[in-house]
Write a structure and sequence with these properties.
Elements (H helix, E strand, L loop, with lengths): L8 E5 L6 H13 L3 E2 L8 E5 L10 E5 L9 H12 L2 H13 L1 H12 L12 E6 L9 H4 L4 E5 L5 H4 L2 H11 L1
Parallel strand pairs: 1-2, 1-3, 3-4, 4-5, 5-6
């Protein structure tokens, strides 16, 4: 259900060991673009999921940024690739903080990952998937995994949506119309 006011709204569904400290730049850009923050996913015009957060099913308009789907790669290989491209001290510190303080949520994300569950879209639902070229968690063959989704590719690595959100926000604004 979309928000009743005229302003489009968003909800962010975080991945493993992520939270508001990660998304502050993205949220600032969304507010600048005219969005407001919804108080829960069901009230948002668009739900924005990152990484493991994409494993939790939502209804309505859904933007999935670098979903953790790459069946041909092991967890260890994906993790090591992410370390090479995305290891920053701030991400490491915040990740450790969110891993501990949001333990139940992280367990909720990990279970569908182990079971290789992926959100399946109903015919009346739409999804936009944004994949970064150097992402180690999302398969370059994401079009085959989600044939009904609109796919957009951006340069960069797995967590670039947190550090350089401008291009993501442009895509989200166009998609939310």
């Amino acid at each position: 259900m979309a928000a009743t006011n005229s302003k489009p709204s968003y909800w962010i569904q975080y991945g493993l060991a992520e939270g508001r400290l990660n998304s502050r730049r993205l949220e600032h850009q969304l507010h600048t673009a005219g969005f407001s923050s919804a108080d829960k996913a069901s009230k948002a015009t668009v739900v924005i999921s990152h990484s493991g957060g994409c494993l939790l099913h939502v209804t309505g308009k859904h933007v999935m940024i670098n979903p953790t789907v790459w069946p041909e790669r092991s967890f260890v290989r994906k993790f090591l690739n992410n370390l090479v491209h995305d290891l920053l001290l701030e991400n490491l510190l915040w990740g450790m903080w969110y891993l501990v303080t949001h333990f139940a949520y992280n367990i909720r994300l990990y279970r569908p990952y182990l079971l290789s569950n992926r959100p399946q879209f109903h015919s009346n639902e739409t999804a936009l998937i944004i994949r970064n070229d150097q992402d180690g968690w999302c398969s370059p063959m994401v079009e085959k995994i989600y044939p009904k989704a609109e796919i957009k590719h951006l340069p960069g690595s797995h967590n670039d949506c947190w550090r350089h959100p401008e291009e993501y926000v442009k895509l989200i604004v166009d998609y939310a119309k």
